[in-house]
Amino acid sequence: MWNLILLFVGGFLYVLGYNGVAAHHGFVPGGSYGFAVVLERILPVLRLEDWYFLINVPLFVIAWKGVSRRFFMLNFVTMACITMMTSYVQLDLGVQNEMYAAIVSGAIMGAGCGMIFRTYGGGGGVDVLAVILNQRYGVRIGVFFFFINAAVMMSALSRYTLDKLIASMVMIFISSVVTEYVLSLFNQRKAVRIVTKKTDELIGVMVERKYHATIFEGRGGYTQKPVSMIFTITDNIRLRSLEQIVFDYDPEAIFVVENTFSVFGGNFSKRKVY
C-alpha cells in the first residue's frame, strides 16, 4: 500500500510538473514521455497520453520475462497512472519566464520521479528496458538514459527551436538532480569511521546508546602500534551525539564522516528484490 501511495503521488507530481508548467512553454521531457511529446507534435492524430501508452506497450511485452513480476507490475501501474493523469490533470501554474519554468517544472517532475523510483519500480517502459540491459549486458543505467534523452532531443530538432531544446535540457538536468535528492531523503545515512586506541571504552558506550558498529583491527603506519577502526552507520540527527561520545573518550581519535546514497539491510530499510 505504501508503494502504491508513492506511485500515485509521484505520478501526480510528474504530470503536474509537465502539464502545469512545461507543456505551456513547449518543453520536451526525457524518456518515453519525451518521445510521446515529440510524436504528438509530429503526428497530432493521437493525444499525448495515447502516444505514451502505445510507446510503452511493446516495451512491456518485451520485458514480461526480462524482470521480476513485482518490478513489471509496479512499472505497469505507474504507466497507467501517468496515462490517466495526463488526461485529467489540466492546469496552468502561471510561470511566465522560460528559465524559471524550466527550473520549476524540472524540480516538480524530479520530485515525482524520486517518489516513483523509491518504490523500486520505475516510470514506464524505458525504465524497464534500462534494467534489462543492465542485468543482461552490463549497460550502465545512467549511460542508457543519456543516449535515450539524446535521441529524444535529436528527434525534436525539426519541430522545436534551439532555445526550447536548451531549456528542455535544463529541465531534464534539474529533474535528474532532484530525483537523486528525493531518493536520498528516504535512505541516506552517514557512514562513520573512527580510528582510536580506546576501542573497548568507545564500543561499550556506543552499544549502550544503541549504535551498531564493526571493529577492524590494524596498526599505525608511522608508529606500527596496534590501532582499531570502528565502522558505524547513523543519521544526521544522531551524528553530533556520536561525535561528542568519541572525543569525550579519546580526544586524539580520527573521526571520518561520509555521505551514503542509500543504506539497506540489517536494522535499516529492507532491500526489495526485483
Task: Set down the secondary structure blueprint.
Blueprint: H1 2-25, H2 31-42, H3 48-63, H4 69-88, H5 98-118, H6 125-137, H7 141-156, H8 162-187, E1 190-196, H9 199-208, E2 213-219, E3 226-234, H10 236-249, E4 254-259
Antiparallel strand pairs: 1-3, 1-4, 2-3
As a percent range, the share of helical residues equals: 55-70%
By DSSP (H or I, 4+ residues per run), the number of helices equals 10
Mean pLDDT: 81
Query: Quick one: biggest sheet?
Result: 4 strands, antiparallel
Distance between the termini: 17 Å
Low-confidence stretches: none
Helix and strand composition category: alpha+beta
Fold and architecture overview:
Strand 2 and strand 3 form a beta hairpin. By secondary structure, the protein is an alpha+beta fold. It is built from ten helices and four strands; from the N terminus they run ααααααααβαββαβ. It has helices spanning about 1-25, 30-40, 50-65, 70-90, 100-120, 125-135, 140-155, 160-185, 200-210, 235-250; strands at about 190-195, 215-220, 225-235, 255-260. It has a four-stranded antiparallel beta sheet. The model has no long low-confidence stretch (mean pLDDT about 80). Helix 1 (about 1-25) crosses helix 4 (about 70-90), helix 2 crosses helix 3 (about 50-65) and helix 9 (about 200-210) runs antiparallel to helix 10.
A few lines on this structure:
The chain has 274 residues and is α+β, with helices and mostly antiparallel strands.
Features:
alpha+beta, 274 residues, elongated, 4-stranded antiparallel beta sheet, 63% helix, 10 helices
